[in-house]
Amino acid sequence: MRIVQRNFGDRLTERILSQRSQVIVGLDPRVDRLPEELRPATPSVKGTAHAVMAFNRAVVDAVADLVVGVKVQVAFYEQLGCAGMNAYASTIRYAREKGMIVIGDAKRNDIASTAAAYAAAHLGTPDGADEVDDFLVDAVTVNPYLGSDGVRPFVEAAAANGRGLFVLVKTSNPSSCEVQDLDCDGATVYERVAELVAEWGSEHRGHSGYSLVGAVCGATFPEELGRLRELMPCAPLLVPGFGAQGADVDDIIGAFDTEGLGAVVNASRGVIYAWERPPYAEEYGPQRWREAVWAAAADMRERIWRATRPDDAV
User: Fold this and answer.
1) Is the pTM of this model over 0.90?
2) Comparing C-alpha atoms, which of 65, 61, 62 is closest to residue 19?
3) How many helices and strands (H and E) does the chain possess?
4) Taking Cα atoms as reference points, which of 211, 281, 272 lies closest to residue 4?
5) Catalytically annotated residues
6) Domains plus CATH for the chain?
7) Those residues with Cβ within 8 angstroms of residue 252's Cβ, 6 or more apart along the chain or in another chain
8) Contact 225, 217 (CB under 8 A)
9) From start to end of 218-300, where are the E strands?
10) Mean pLDDT, 10 residues at a time, over the chain (314 residues)?
């Protein structure tokens, strides 16, 4: 097994501090919302995939100096078949070339050799041999429903390759309560999962104090977010639900430690389609959509940084 000097938690922390940002931009390209100039004249799967890739490159170029990284939601690429998955792979490579942390939002899981195969695809093999790097990311989202058997292969691959994983704990969608809030011997299901995340990551803490095993905790549940920070003090948190899903700066404060570290906040629609909504629609409009994307990311970066690190202005 290769020796990794810095774990994912260290790399994430270093990127947060170097960028003076806690922002992740979600690359969720909806074909019907792409800028008019990028849409193919004759609709086709290949043409659409090419348009998606052109859009992603433009977004990455616009925000590269402002954010920690990007989260690439694989579903938007899978729906375009092989051409879409080529766009997914190209997007990953392009963002990593720009020095960004890239999170593959794939929510993978299974057991035994199947889980190991998923882990190899997204995080690399434990021994580093014969890697296919098309889908390799810095971290991947993982569904914990199958328990430890389904998570350990991801932890092993991440530990060997300096990568990480974000385990679904308390997701931002309203119906998450149907399962995640069920009582489990005096605690909720999501609290029990949080305890497991802390256990899985306990042996993989880096110099920063943060582990390579992180957790997905939605900004739309701010009270629960603070509780989860307590249960998982060493887990980096990936916080979706900011912006278009209704959460704002006050809702995400509980995700961070006392130094404003330990969490990154994802926004997708609110940034990549910023030219469609105020105040960016009025100032930039569809012709200057790249500038609107930059402005939305810059505003989000500044607001979160000021709220979590008030003595360290951007």
Assistant:
1) yes
2) 65
3) 13, 10
4) 211
5) 107
6) 8-308 (3.20.20.70)
7) 219, 222, 225, 239, 242, 263, 265, 304
8) yes
9) 237-239, 263-267
10) 68 97 97 91 90 98 98 97 97 97 96 94 80 92 96 96 97 92 92 97 95 96 94 97 87 96 96 95 95 98 95 78
